[in-house]
User: What shape does this take?
Amino acid sequence: MTCEHVNTCSFIQHMSKKVPFTINMVKIKYCEFNKNRCARYGLLRVFKMEKIPDDLWPSDDMKALELSELKLNEARKKLYGCSREEIPV
Assistant: This one.
């Protein structure tokens, strides 16, 4: 199933000028056939992130996890007034 963000993805737009052949392969692998494996799509789906860094590659799970942790810390601060590290035991 094709990703509904393929035409508006800032990564695709940003990188297609720099490495068009590579981006075509990325679009086939992630956008057209396996959007659920895309780190960018996961952040959009789970966290409803409005701004994802343009340089986040679909395969960059580690950076996506770091961004996820930042979003979780923001949510913790809203809920509890502190981050995970600051929650008293």
